[in-house]
Amino acid sequence: xECYVGxxxxxxxxxxxxxxxxxxxxxxxxxxxxxxxxxxFVRSKAPGAIRVGLETGPTSTWLWTELKQLGLPVxxxxxxxxxxxxxxxxxxxxRNDAAGIARIMQTGWFKEVRxxxxxxxxxxxxxxxxxxxVFTMRAEELIxxxxxxxxxxxxxxxxxxxxxxxxxxxxxxxxNLARHDAQVRRFMTAPGVGPITAxxxxxxxxxxxxFKRSRSVGAYVGLTTRxxxxxxxxxxxxxxxxxxxxxxTYLFEAANVLLTRVPKWSALxxxxxxxxxxxxxxxxxxxxxxKLAVILHRMWVDGTEFNWSTKKAAA
Length: 315
Prior knowledge:
By secondary structure, the protein is α/β, with parallel strands linked by helices. It contains twelve helices and seven strands. Strands 3-2-1-4-5 form a five-stranded mixed β-sheet.
């Protein structure tokens, strides 16, 4: 029988609801939040499942990966989209949420979330650890500058030395990953793009085939302007800042390096400098960051390196 399954996952237990093609509840149950237990329930109670849905959350990557390997047609949906539907229910409970997710699967009114593979998450965890260490060192510098008591500054300096050692170890791991990844090395041929930005771009995008057009990557990272159009009102605001904040930050830093430190000329730099003269340096950096995202995606799709122009354009 054709049916659809919704999973409301918590750390210990998962509520499961199975609905028919018309949305009627067929089966309900609660099992441990273990892929094998969930798969066993679905196979026994819903052998004709067309879609098995779960929301994004702390365990969604692990659970989605394991259920896929067990052969279930699992789909991950954005928790914000699911919330917009589930909040229409009068009573909130895990049981009702599972039923709501099952009916979302049944109607097909959802947008599937791309779940990155474990390797990409490992790289992002490495980069996040490094970023946290760098932030901590900067915070300690500010604290040490404002404190004069040796009894307080001494432990801070010791902590800073330990964090510096950890950061150096993480930097070596980052460089080692970049050195042994051909695609990351190709990314690094682009001006301003170093191993950290290149690794972050590869781990965040995960699969270039996700985007039919390279220019969609800029919007995915949150580097395109918001727009509001209704009736006679039509305006564009600041960038959306949706998507991954880490990648957006690194692309902005790469754009800054390209515009202020890279001496070699390129058409991208000339374009950015023209924008800086017309609209200011900060807006130019945002535009160049967006352009870099598009260029890196196209380099990935084509398997090429950055194309340095030979003819200098008028700046």
